[in-house]
Amino acid sequence: MSGVSAAEALLRRDRLLVGACLAVICLLSWIYLVAGAGTGMSTVAMTTWEFPPPIYRSSGGGDWSFAYWVIMLLMWWVMMIAMMVPSAAPMILLYTRVQRHALEGNPGDAAVPVLSFLSGYLLAWFVFSLLATAMQWGFERAGLVHGMMMWSTSHTLSGLFLLAAGVYQLSPLKNRCLQHCRSPAAFLSAHWRRGSAGALRMGVEHGLYCVGCCWSLMLLLFVGGIMNLVWIAGLAIFVLLEKLLPRGDWLARASGGLMIAVGGYLLSA
Length: 269
Hints:
It is a single chain. This protein is mainly alpha-helical. It has one domain. It has helices at 3-11, 14-34, 66-102, 111-141, 155-169, 172-182, 184-191, 195-218, 221-224, 229-244, 248-268. It starts with a helix and ends with a helix.
């Protein structure tokens, strides 16, 4: 086989290559989280199966240096990558296939748009991570989130987060965003744009639908622990099932009722 034909054969396995790259990105993200995400703290110490987590009173008002802001922002963003890329993989892989067919004459040109699409998707979650980091700073200053354990020190705050998440799980906006995430072909058909700039915009749009679908679930990390590996893995698996199971929309509604019940219990405790 000639060098040219070997390269063409490799490029035609683009979905396998993209899938492998996504797997590596997820693996590295999880390794970064398990290693402490640059915080210098042990994720084992911040991990518990207990719910609600034990309440340790926080001194509140801790000073965040610029470097610590960056560490927290990176922690949130890498966490979102680890949790959300697996459920976004079907969309990215289908986009890869469509791009290759659209550029049948030169499939190698599909690499840049695919990277742009992924970058746009991750950009949407970067914006969410920035807002979540600001919320963490505010809650820590108010003494509502423990500075070291990174989970709620208030049953009232935890109850409100669960209640809000449960109500949102039952809302039409949640269902609309979830249906977009569950229907990659329909999304690509309705939002297709050519070129790398178009791919970036499509990635941002898909990312915004994904944020719209999952933002309330991700904020439950404040309840169970931002660096609690049990909650990180549990929420990641739930999101994956919600988007990929044949009746994932039913799972979303059922979980909404459960969250409302548990939130109400915590508020009355």
